[in-house]
Write a sequence for this structure.
């Protein structure tokens, strides 16, 4: 049976490195590193994410700015908020919580973010830096995947990776981050044929399709490292009338019988995302000030 990767414990470890790094940087910077989070509307999941981001930013010793606006805000006003945060020298990281209301173009808003403050790694500039192998801020969730895979398997050079899903947020950057580790990467998506056969050869499977339990145990190579990014709320009649639960994109029990390592949902990849958001904020603060990365987060 697989060893279960404890994403909460891993995230707590990274948070503690960030906290130490903040202490190392703060005196040279003359202020605490600062993350600004912009939240539009009342989406309940977004409220929870933002609350957790603010809490962990502050727990790591960084300053947090939270900007909340009504869902009826106009695009131009939201762009103006991001521009003001770009111009504020005391702000190191800017994050606009997705999804945005339908009348706002998320690309326009994201492209407004100064790439040097783009702690989600979502701007075209950040994506270009990743593809070119240039220094820059990398998307948080896939960074968490690579870090956990390295903890589980050690050196990743030459490993074969199947990434399931090609979103800008997860799948595509995951493919390039594993490529950066000298893995051989197969980037699959909803039109991919013979996905089970591809998975059967993979040392690492990154499941990010948003399809509950689509990856079956029989697809997994013995001993593989299975990283389940999916977060899907499904009916759970066993919890009584109207009950629901969270499941990943992997049929966990089956996959755990064949995998060497597996992340649970919840408590696997999820907590790692905020950990790397904090890492990115600290990196951005150092880079913007022309200072070396704090010792405590080297290698992260
Ligand atoms: P998305 O909907 O933008 O992209 C899904 C991708 O999966 C698409 O590229 C699509 O081609 C592919 N896909 C769909 N069906 C497929 C199939 N049957 N076979 C192969 N590929 C298929 O989603 P996203 O934003 O990348 O998120 C994916 C999942 O990860 C969601 O469940 C989301 O909630 C979760 N997520 C978790 C975190 C975290 O912190 N753990 C962060 C971001 C997203």
């Amino acid at each position: 049976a697989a060893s279960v990767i404890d994403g909460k414990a891993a995230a707590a470890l990274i948070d503690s490195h960030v906290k130490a790094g903040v202490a190392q940087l703060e005196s040279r910077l003359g202020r605490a590193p600062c993350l600004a989070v912009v939240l539009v509307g009342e989406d309940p999941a977004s409220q929870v994410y933002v609350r957790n981001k603010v809490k962990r930013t502050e727990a790591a010793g960084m300053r947090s700015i939270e900007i909340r606006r009504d869902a009826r805000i106009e695009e131009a006003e939201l762009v103006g908020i991001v521009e003001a945060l770009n111009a504020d020298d005391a702000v190191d990281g800017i994050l606009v919580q997705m999804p945005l209301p339908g009348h706002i173009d998320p690309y326009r808003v994201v492209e407004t973010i100064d790439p040097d403050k783009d702690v989600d790694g979502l701007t075209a500039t950040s994506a270009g830096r990743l593809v070119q192998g240039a220094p820059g801020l990398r998307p948080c969730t896939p960074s968490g995947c690579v870090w956990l895979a390295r903890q589980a398997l050690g050196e990743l050079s030459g490993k074969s990776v199947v990434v399931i899903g090609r979103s800008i947020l997860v799948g595509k950057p995951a493919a390039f981050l594993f490529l950066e580790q000298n893995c051989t990467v197969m980037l699959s998506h909803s039109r991919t044929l013979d996905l089970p056969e591809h998975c059967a050869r993979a040392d690492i499977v990154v499941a990010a399709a948003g399809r509950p339990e689509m990856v079956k145990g029989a697809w997994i190579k013995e001993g593989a490292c299975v990283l389940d990014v999916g977060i899907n709320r499904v009916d759970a009649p066993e919890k009584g009338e109207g009950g629901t639960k969270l499941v990943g994109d992997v049929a966990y029990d089956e996959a755990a019988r064949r995998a060497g390592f597996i992340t649970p949902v919840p408590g696997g990849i999820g907590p790692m995302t905020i950990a790397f958001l904090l890492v990115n904020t600290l990196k951005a603060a150092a880079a913007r000030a022309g200072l070396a990365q704090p010792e405590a987060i080297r290698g992260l």
Residues 95 and 211 are 26 Å apart (CA to CA). The chain has two domains: 27-116, 140-271. The domain at 140-271 is CATH 3.40.50.720 (Rossmann fold). The first strand starts at residue 3 and ends at 4.
